[in-house]
Write a structure and sequence with these properties.
The chain has 320 residues and is α/β, with parallel strands linked by helices. Helices cover 29% and strands 20% of the residues. The strands form three sheets. An eight-stranded mixed sheet has the order 7-8-9-3-10-11-13-12, with helices on both faces. Strands 2-1-4 form a three-stranded antiparallel sheet, covered by helices on one side. Strand 1 and strand 2 form a beta hairpin. The chain binds iron/sulfur cluster and magnesium ion.
Length: 320
């Protein structure tokens, strides 16, 4: 992703001035092939808007999406879908209740006119088998299945095109805890088997720690820290990352939005604070922080060598 931005215009009318919301603000991020990039941050930080741009569901205000070095943002949604496929949070609403599973899973092949109907049916059977569903599932409707089974259907549909990138947007947060680990392990097995690349969006750091190779931390539409899983979990450098990790370790994590324990909540995103947008909540803010916006820059970790090659980290903080 190259300087990808999405600005929404809100409201306006007789009494109110229209406001602009920079949901995603110049995000540049490289997801290495064959790896899992975790994207974390509180709800409303822009994670899902970012995903929607990658899926062609909402056009970016500016910036590019590149796959293998080629920009594809101006391609239509159909072209984008050849490269990028989603697995959404809610398998109840993301599957058409009036279609049989065979139709649902085979849809991408029909849209892109890949193979004969017979070949498509064989591919569907193969995918259902790979995601651990019985053959008879092909003739069922989503309403006849459990949440976990439905998410397996969504995974089969996403992978049938062998996409370059799979966007997993909170893929287990609507499932029972007992099912979550099964689905996460299935995603990992399939990734290894097919060399898949995931952008894994989650507010749940425990889930991300389990599967991400790298992590990007988002705050108010911007990436504030990026690095390998080890760097982020063992020596986070941005105060926001540190607070997120600390809140994930408290015995009673809040439901949904993590309570990051930094006094004031997330600021109104239509009126982001000046300078470093995190400064009103930052426990170590300095006077310069409200004036100068820190750039996301490469840093060397004190224990740099230990993290190995290709482990470059980036942080947006004056004091990091
Ligand atoms: Fe805190 Fe300043 Fe760093 Fe922002 S730039 S995270 S306010 S220390
Ligand atoms: Mg979301």
């Amino acid at each position: 992703l190259c300087a990808l931005s999405k600005t929404f215009k809100l409201g306006g009318g007789m009494l109110h001035k229209p406001q602009t919301l920079k949901a995603v603000n110049e995000v540049s991020l490289r997801v290495p092939r064959g790896q899992v990039m975790g994207l974390v941050g509180e709800s409303g930080c822009g994670k899902s808007t970012l995903a929607k741009m990658l899926l062609g569901l909402t056009p970016p205000s500016s910036g590019d999406v590149l796959i293998n070095g080629k920009a594809i943002v101006n391609a239509n949604q159909k072209a984008l879908a050849r490269h990028i496929q989603p697995i959404f949070q809610d398998p109840y609403s993301s599957l058409n209740p009036r279609q049989r599973i065979a139709q649902i899973v085979g849809l991408p092949l029909r849209i892109h006119a890949l193979g004969t109907p017979r070949e498509q049916a064989a591919k569907v059977d193969q995918m259902l088998d790979l995601v651990g569903l019985p053959k008879r599932a092909a003739q069922q409707y989503p309403g006849q299945m459990s949440g976990g089974q439905r998410q397996r259907v969504a995974i089969a549909r996403a992978l049938i095109m062998r996409p370059d990138l799979v966007i997993c947007d909170e893929p287990t947060s609507a499932l029972d805890v007992s099912i979550q680990a099964q689905i996460l392990n299935l995603l990992l097995d399939l990734k290894d088997e097919f060399g898949l690349t995931y952008l894994f969006i989650s507010h749940d750091l425990a889930v991300v720690e389990h599967l991400a190779d790298r992590l990007a931390v988002m705050y108010l539409g911007q990436i504030v820290e990026e690095g390998t899983r080890e760097q982020i979990f063992t020596s986070p450098r941005h105060p926001y990352t540190q607070a997120l990790l600390a809140s994930a370790l408290t015995p009673e994590p809040g439901l949904g939005v993590p309570d990051i324990g930094l006094g004031a909540g997330q600021p109104d995103p239509t009126q982001p604070p000046s300078g470093c947008a995190f400064h009103p909540r930052c426990p170590i803010a300095q006077p310069q922080c409200s004036e100068q916006t820190p750039k996301l820059s490469a840093i060397t970790h004190a224990s740099g060598q230990a993290f190995g090659k290709g482990s470059q980290a980036r942080v947006a903080c004056h004091l990091a």
